[in-house]
Design a protein that fits this description.
globular; six-stranded mixed sheet
Amino acid sequence: MKSRIFRIGLLLGGLGAWGCGKGAQYPKIYDAPLEIDDSVPFSFDLSAQHVSSSCKTEIADLLRHMDAIAALSVENARFVTVAREMELYRSEFSNRLLPIMFLKYVSPSADVRSAAGECEIRMGQSMVEVYGRDDLHRIVKAVVEKKEMLDAQDAQLLQSTLNRFVRSGLELAPEKRKVFSAKKKTLIELESKFQTNLDEWKDGLVVSREELAGLGPNYIATLERVSPGKYLVPLDYPHYYPFMDEAHDANARKRLEYKFSRRGGLQNVKLLERAIRLRHELATMMGYQNHAERVLKSTMAKTPERVEKFLEELSRAFEPSARADLAEMLAAKQKDVGKECAGLIESWDFRYYDNQLRKAKYGITPQKLKEWFPLDVVVRGMFSIYENLLGVQFARAEGPTWHEDVTFFRVMEHGKTRAYFYLDLFPRPGKYGHAASFTVQKGMKERSGAYRAPVSAIVANFTPPTEGQEPLLTHDEVETLFHEFGHVMHQTLTSARYASFSGTNVKQDFVETPSQMFESWVWQPETIQMISRHHRTGERLPADVIAKLVASRLHHMGSRRLRQVALSAVDLMYHTSPGIETTSAYARIMRDIRLVPIQEGTYPQASFTHIMNGYGGTYYSYLWSESIAVDMFRRFQQEGLSNPGAGADFRRWILEPGCTQDPDELVRGFLGREPNHEALWNWLGIIPNGTAF
């Protein structure tokens, strides 16, 4: 599973979520090269006091500006004085606060992280206030009723602005509006606290040297030695996954998995359940049956019923191979411990036996393959691929960062700066614990006519380097890097006029499509050849090993994809069933759909961050987007992986428009036909029992 675009962009109100533009053919937004305003970098060396005071000042200024717009007479209310002015000021305000709020997820200072988190909450709540104002709603409606002659993007902005007020409860009775706004403000606070609890979570498992049997010396060298013969295994991904993959001691795996599946604690279970209730209450106040119905209305899928049907069909397609996978794992387990001691594959068995069987079949292991994927070689190769396809260049940039591990780059086009991005790839205390692409500054056409340079950041938790050794990536981490960099390109190469429609501000079940398509490159032999080189000898990965790696992509595909179906079903059940007890529901779905029970006493939903960070009711998006992504990748397979013509079309149709057009139209434009699911089934090696979607 790959991560996602992060929620601070949603808090600052991309209107794309309320519906993307429509049109028969993609119009080039700017015929001439954009004149880029590249007035960055930012300073991240801020005190907690500075963060708090800046946040307070900016919010007060925003509200004063909204007061001035609301005070306009109906006679003076025009698109440019109301909707456009609201959008421009809110976007300028957003671009000043985004770098500050971003520090919640990356600052080395706990005080700064806390202050930035408070700013994030206040920011989200201030937007609730703005779009809950009846006077602003009236003046926007007055502009709509004047029916000015507007071009497509201006008309889209005006309608989206009005829709945002409607979605904020402005058509409710006055006494209900206050309740609605109060619930939304509370929800913002719950979601922020949920993530903070995880980022600040401190726990691990103390193990003996004997319990580390199966782990290599490089792994053990990264562990803190807490006493003679005792080591601390942290819960971050670079330590957790290798332990679950390689540790021979089943009891040690069970104990580590127990701690991992309780991250966030019961406090996060309570926060999640409160959030689910609030989302349901907000949805029913708006006339919807549930939260899923409300959020899916503005997606490609449209309805909970269609998502449920989609997941059921995927489940039927994946279940036969998943059962075969589990039977194979169980046979391996029984060989280890005896039939009488092994009745099923437990949650702490899955990764271990999956990995052991992968080694037996293909003769490769994640930890051994790392030796051929030095970070510098991977990044240079990845840059070369993206440069050739998309017609840009990447170069190191000078500028302040928030930590010494962070690297800063500029995106160049026609010899000029097009955008910037940061790479923050290794874990540290208090840092955001997954992998995600953050928007640090949104692309937009400014009042001057120049285009504001987008700024992004990839925040990940890859295996840190050991002393005296350069960083080495697992192939899974390579895939994650390509995925997240796809998000960066979506953010970077936007040319939408307004920030609300730029970059990744697209329909929720389309946002992962470009990044998932770029994942496909890391499974192609010619790409692997380009991005691999042994960190000691400089040799490329041998052709026979590349062939085995490529073949291993389909290893236990059914059981791995069924986990995603199960998580999507959990999310859908949570957001269609008010008052649900989340732990028992999670356990039931994992048992019935994934076919692997969760460990007793655990509550994995307490760390299911996606559904508290913008994906609540829409986690199915990863599976939905994958079908489109592999269909688009098929064009590159047919025309050439490095075909710049196909790359230019992908940029023009998929990356540049943002939410200025409906994604169905953009996909048809790129493919030259209607999309279909044949490529998905071929990619997954699955023979479906029915037709999904």
